[in-house]
Amino acid sequence: MSSKLLSVFAIVLAFTLSSCGLIPSQANSSIEAVNVDENRVAIKGYDPVAYFTDAKPVLGSQQFSAEYNGAIYQFESAEHKALFEGTPAKYAPQYGGYCAFGVTQEKKYDIDPNAWAVVDGKLYLNLNSGAQNVWNKDRIGNIESGNAIWLDIENKSVSEL
Fold first, then answer.
1. From residue 78, how far is each of 65, 122, 159 by CA, in Å?
2. Pick from 72, 45, 73: which is nearest to 59 by CA?
3. The whole model's pTM is what?
4. Tens digit of pLDDT for each residue in 90-148?
5. Exposed end of the chain (fewer CB within 10 Å): N or C?
6. Cβ of 142: how many Cβ atoms within 10 Å?
7. Other beta carbons within 10 Å of 151
8. Alpha carbon distance 144, 127 (integer Å)
């Protein structure tokens, strides 16, 4: 085989193995940075914009969905979808949608969409009401701590922590 043909073969083989999950791609290695279900849906299908506009959790719809950082976000309306698509970083939850209190403990815990807070224009989610209550006792301190810790654990898998 010529070297040119070997190079093409190697590229095709690498692409095939990567797309089958046999070689981790960059996209796959960073997906742990966002808390998603098996269908890549974030926040258990809840509308991230509703936390800001309606001041409550609202279940989104597959009809109104958008992708951001490898996750699929669902919205209750086309208007909410448009707001999100205009500035997704404004509405996406902090710490990739993992439990804000868990991050302060160097862990990536799942969330309950009903355990939430918007602080200084940012959405924080927690594991449950118990974690939310502990996190609420020192929101600012927990946010400062979480921000520093997140830089170290963002791309680590749940099992590594």
1. 9, 21, 36
2. 45
3. 0.81
4. 999 999 999 999 999 999 999 999 999 999 999 999 999 999 999 999 999 999 999 99
5. N
6. 19
7. 8
8. 19
